[in-house]
């Protein structure tokens, strides 16, 4: 059954649906602009993911883009140049320090909104198709699992508009793939790479025929995770993310402390008994 909490809210720039038990589907919904982002979109994104993160009705999330052409082409540069951070200031001009202070606040809030995907307690499967440029890379590197359609074209596009990517790509992409040389290649040249190359370097874990098939696979992955113990799945996500940014020794110690409380769950006994009885276990909400 769909959630009855405030997850059942209508959003201006996203479609939020619940295709299966414990699974939420967040769809970026600005296809007429190839899902290019304006400021209200990233603010709403944080609202959605913060809500889903704390909802006991949700255990896994699929993130995709509406329409056939793009997951997202990134920042709506035209809109940003007219009224956003890239716009020329009106009125009394600010000195360099004051302008920089305002930009720092703006960038920090923007980063925080996109990071809400990574900070979400629930695992997120990102389904990519068509154009996935700029902010599309920032957003997808926040996800736990990335899969894409054969039509996907990707690019770290920021150097082509005269800036260094500042919303997460330069921090997360080197940790998402194995080759630092490749990361510098795509970030410094802004060249486009395809689904085959994305799979080869490990940016995605699967490539599928078209958007429909990729989305179906995303729902299948999400449903598999949602059927397992939420204590185990959400704990595993947290421990993987924490260990990624710390030493092996620190990760082992932290995991030991974490599991000293997490092992008190009834889910362990339920899982073991279900395995012996060859039944599918059912777990309490978390």
Structure description:
The structure is a single chain. The protein is an alpha/beta fold and 286 residues long. Helices cover 48% and strands 15% of the residues. It contains eleven helices and ten strands. The chain has helices at residues 39-54, 77-83, 96-119, 135-141, 169-176, 180-189, 195-201, 211-226, 230-244, 248-262, 267-277, and strands at residues 14-20, 23-28, 60-65, 70-72, 124-128, 131-133, 145-149, 153-155, 193-194, 207-208. The chain has a six-stranded mixed sheet, with helices on both faces. Helix 1 (39-54) runs parallel beside helix 3, helix 4 (135-141) crosses helix 5 and helix 9 runs antiparallel to helix 10. The radius of gyration is 20 Å and the shape is globular. The two termini are 16 Å apart. The model has no long low-confidence stretch (mean pLDDT 92).
Order of helices and strands: EEHEEHHEEHEEHHEHEHHHH
Mean pLDDT: 92
- What is the 3D shape? globular
What is the strand content? Answer: 5-15%
Helical proportion, percent range: 40-55%
Strand order of the largest sheet: 1-2-3-5-7-10
Total beta-strand segments: 10
- Which structural class best describes the helix and strand composition? alpha/beta
Flag low-confidence runs. none
What about the largest sheet?
A: 6 strands, mixed
Number of helices: 11
Radius of gyration: 20 Å
End-to-end distance = 16 Å
Task: Spell out the key features of this protein.
15% strand; 286 residues; 11 helices; four-stranded mixed sheet; alpha/beta
